[in-house]
């Protein structure tokens, strides 16, 4: 009888271990590989309160939740981080650069030069001016290029984390979204994290392959990222906005901060606030840690 109870106990323990292991890999399970430590948390606070940030950018914290977002992704000082397409203003560069300046490395993979598109030249020039204007803040940021023919955003296998904020629709419009995520996969170390924030579309509306409204359905985004080999590790609703109806004639840019309709219904859109956003955390699998790396599969809607 004793032996039977012993065997039953061992079986229960083994079962619990299996359940725990499985739960740790499921989206939303609270898996935080890696985790933000106290020193990095304090550095985030200091950066958010720093003089390098404008009042206009600081006012958007209520919608963009920068500390919660970076903590969810597991940012830590000492990491090598790549921010993809920071845009002309570099909203997140303002936050990331001071955190990593003396403890880590920040690559900024800006939109690659395109002689046929004057907007690209303006974006790059504005961002470069920002970087050069404050060498004490941004002097250690390394700017690289990312486009259809420029995909080395950092030395291969060097990055601990790659981050992109509200960009997938831009890449879908240009027909090279999968190529961008392949560039991120190549830059990351095994076990490295890809953090994604994007305008979230209405799942009842079929995805426009060009994402002309600026919205991307969450299932489409996950399928796209996983098509190059990433695995979804976790997701969060911290950047959600249930007031966003996602049915505007001029797309997501109808909402603040763009207000594409100008003064028309401005108060209405201000009351809605910025867009509903998905926040997704992916990992580049470690084949030597019991997670088999799956070969990339072509992405199709």
Characteristics:
disordered N terminus, Rossmann fold, 12 helices, 7-stranded mixed β-sheet, 301 residues, alpha/beta, globular
- What CATH calls the topology of the largest domain is Rossmann fold
**What value does the Rg take, in angstroms?**
21 Å
How many strand segments?
Answer: 7
**CATH architecture field of the largest domain:** 3-Layer(aba) Sandwich
Profile the largest sheet.
7 strands, mixed
Biggest sheet strand order reads: 3-2-1-4-5-7-6
Number of helices: 12
CATH top level label of the largest domain: Alpha Beta
| Domains, number | 2
Task: Name the poorly predicted regions.
Answer: 1-32, 288-295
Shape summary: globular
Q: Which structural category do the helix and sheet elements fall into?
A: alpha/beta
- State mean pLDDT (0 to 100 scale): 89
| Helix-strand pattern | HHHHHEHEHHEEHHEHEHE
Write the CATH homologous superfamily of the largest domain: Vaccinia Virus protein VP39
Strand residue percentage: 15-25%
């Amino acid at each position: 009888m004793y032996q039977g109870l012993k065997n039953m106990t061992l079986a229960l323990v083994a079962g619990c271990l299996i359940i725990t292991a499985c739960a740790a890999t499921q989206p939303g399970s609270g898996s935080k590989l890696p985790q933000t430590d106290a020193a990095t948390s304090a550095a985030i606070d200091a950066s958010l309160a720093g003089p390098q940030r404008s009042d206009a950018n600081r006012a958007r914290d209520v919608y963009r939740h920068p500390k919660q977002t970076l903590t969810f992704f597991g940012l830590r000082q000492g990491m090598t981080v790549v921010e993809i397409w920071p845009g002309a203003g570099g909203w997140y560069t303002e936050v990331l650069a001071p955190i990593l300046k003396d403890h880590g490395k920040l690559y900024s993979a800006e939109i690659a030069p395109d002689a046929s598109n004057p907007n690209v030249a303006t974006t790059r020039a504005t961002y470069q001016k920002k970087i050069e204007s404050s060498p004490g803040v941004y002097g250690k940021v390394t700017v690289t290029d990312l486009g259809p023919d420029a995909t080395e955003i950092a030395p291969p296998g060097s990055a601990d984390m790659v981050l992109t904020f509200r960009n997938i629709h831009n890449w879908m419009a240009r027909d090279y979204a999968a190529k961008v995520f392949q560039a991120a996969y190549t830059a990351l170390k095994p076990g490295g994290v890809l953090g994604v924030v994007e305008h979230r579309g209405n799942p009842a509306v079929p995805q426009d392959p060009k994402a002309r409204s600026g919205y991307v359905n969450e299932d489409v985004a996950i399928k796209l990222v996983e098509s190059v080999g990433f695995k979804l590790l976790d997701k969060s609703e911290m950047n959600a906005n249930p007031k966003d109806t996602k049915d505007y004639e001029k797309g997501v840019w109808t909402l603040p901060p763009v207000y594409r309709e100008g003064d028309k219904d401005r108060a209405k859109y201000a009351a809605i606030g910025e867009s509903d956003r998905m926040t997704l955390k992916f990992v580049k699998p470690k084949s030597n840690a019991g997670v088999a790396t799956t070969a990339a599969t072509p992405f199709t809607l």
